[in-house]
Amino acid sequence: MTVALKDFDTVAKPDWCPGCGDFGIQVAIKQALTNLQIEPHNVAFVTDIGCSGKIAHWVNTYGLHSLHGRAVACGTGVKFANRDLTVVIDAGDGGGYGIGMGHFVHAVRRNVDVTFMVHNNMVYGLTKGQMTPTSCKGYKSPSSPFGAIEEPVNPLALALSLGCTFVARGSAGDAVHLTKILEAAVKHKGFALVDIFQPCVTFNKIQTYAYFLKNTYNLDKEEDYDRSNWKAAMDKAMQSDKFPVGILYQVEHPTYEDQDPGRAELAAVNLPIENIDIGPLMQKYY
Ligand SMILES: Cc1ncc(C[n+]2csc(CCOP(=O)(O)OP(=O)(O)O)c2C)c(N)n1
Ligand code: SF4
Ligand SMILES: [Mg+2]
Q1: Could you write out the three-class secondary structure of 96-111?
Q2: Residues 100/72, Cβ–Cβ less than 8 Å
Q3: What is the CATH number of the domain that holds 186?
Q4: How far is the CA of 22 from the centre of ligand 2 (A)?
Q5: Domain total of the chain
Q6: CA of 238 to the centre of ligand 1 (A)
Q7: Is the CB–ligand 2 distance for residue 201 below 6 Å?
Q8: What residues make up the domain containing 107?
Q9: Consecutive 10-residue averages of pLDDT for the chain (286 residues)
Q10: Neighbours of 277 (CB within 10 A)
Q11: How far lies 6's CA from each of 59, 164, 169, in Å?
């Protein structure tokens, strides 16, 4: 069967604010899956809570809209339950790098074969614009009225320091480039982080489309850039005069699943589901 873009359409339509960067991200992931010809029933989209997390309802694949900060844990579980699925985990910067930071760190270490895309709008969008771990120092918000005191988390440098095998940055304002990045991330065997600059047009009046256009450049156009050079990638991750957008780093390492082949047969998808009596289990809770 040939997979077409419309196969990923849903009847429900997004309710994001007009102009939100999440629209560009939605288009890009649908186009990437189409380009890779991955059928919708072979994809599990596991999302966090936030404006970003609602995307699970608007991409026609299997979807699990999980808990705040728990998308990586749930997505990892889905992958272990059925290793044949393409698992795309999706979170906001609050869910991914705040409340879910521990899960992120350990999933990277494990090199589970999933794609993790983070809508990085530098605010808690759904709860009305509070600062997040990626908000700039000095950022004024309802929860930091005198300006954020902390330095922001650098997700790319953090991922590199943990041995992440695919580290990229995308921009919601350039859906064509983002599609290419997501395609490579989904194809990558191992944990792929795609941090995505995403304008929140309602609450973040600093990091706007114009800001990202002015302050980013396309790393994938640098022909002599060596994506397997960890030190070069770290330099790019730390660059702050202009932010590189593209694939900073990619190497092949055995995945967690590769190193645990025995458990494949025990994956939940292979277990019989007929004639299961859950009565005794339920009795325990009465
Ligand atoms: C455990 C828990 N704590 C707090 C909340 C309230 N809450 C819902 S969405 C959200 C912020 C989401 O921000 P982010 O993850 O950056 O996603 P965005 O809305 O910006 O896409 C918060 C704090 C929650 N749902 N669950
Ligand atoms: S609040 Fe911000 S992130 Fe949420 S839908 Fe509106 S523009 Fe998008
Ligand atoms: Mg956010």
Answers
A1: HHHHCHHHHHHHHHHC
A2: yes
A3: 3.40.50.970
A4: 8
A5: 1
A6: 27
A7: yes
A8: 5-283
A9: 96 97 98 98 98 98 98 97 97 98 98 98 98 97 97 98 98 98 98 98 98 98 98 98 98 96 86 89 93
A10: 7
A11: 10, 33, 26
